[in-house]
Amino acid sequence: MKKFWASVMVACMLVICAGAFADEAAKLKSVDQLKTERLAAQRGTVGQFIAEDLLGDKKASLLTTYEKYVDAVASLRQGKVRAIVMDEMPAKRFLTSVEGLAIMDEALSEENYAIGFRKGNSKLVEAVNKALAEIKADGTLNAIFEKYLNGDYTSIDPATIDFNKDAKGGKLVVGTEAGFAPYELKVGSSYIGIDVEMCAAIAKKLDRQLVIENMNFDALPMAVSTNKVDMICAGITVTDERKENMDFSDNYVVGAKQVALVRADDYEK
């Protein structure tokens, strides 16, 4: 009988150890593992394109796209997806506001952000590039980045942002997707963020009033191509494919990263 129970205990220990090793092996350690996992991304973003490339011919069954990052994060927390492919800065913001998340160390890509325009709208592109160069040179743009990247931007009052109301040059209508903090974020009925304050500074240089039109990210290209808005600014990555359908300003962010946001208990560095 003693031998029987000893055998049972050994078998149980082996099962427990095997389970522990299986759990250890199952944790995410490398972005290469994402090629066979259920992934999420925001619809129409470079994150979606990267996720599709990772998954290859399995993208139809393994990739889920969402209109808003918050919905993708909810899906991740519920275990419906294994990772979200997204921009690094919004991912970092979720780390501070949602418990139990982590960013994998390996970046999936590096990219540049610019403002998008209707194809052939060279007059506005030139005017914006001139204004952009001026706010870079006089330190305005750097101060905006410092404000949002190194300070508590959640307490910023939208009323402190100068939208250059009643400007003589008319309105500058900018399309954005206000779920991409710290670049754009809706607060009450108004907006704050790096892109918002940068566009406000540009509008002031052009003697125009900034007007923000908030919409889904994947609707932005059509909005600018059909003149619903004058330009679009929402952390938009410059790609060859997008250049075929719209023009871009000079870059205002160089080397932004796409990362994988995962559950902290599912990731081993």
Distance between the termini: 46 Å
Q: Can you summarize the main beta sheet? A: 6 strands, mixed
- Whole-number radius of gyration? 23 Å
Q: What is the arithmetic mean of pLDDT? A: 91
User: Given the C-alpha coordinates, what overall shape results?
Assistant: globular
Backbone structural class: alpha/beta
Element order, helices and strands? Answer: HEHHEHEHEEEHHEEEEHEHEHEE
Summarize the amount of helix as a percent range.
25-40%
**Unreliable segments of 5+ consecutive residues:** 1-24
What is the structure about, briefly put?
39% of the residues lie in helices and 23% in strands.
Keywords summarizing the entry:
269 residues, alpha/beta, 6-stranded mixed β-sheet, 5-stranded mixed β-sheet, 10 helices, 39% helix
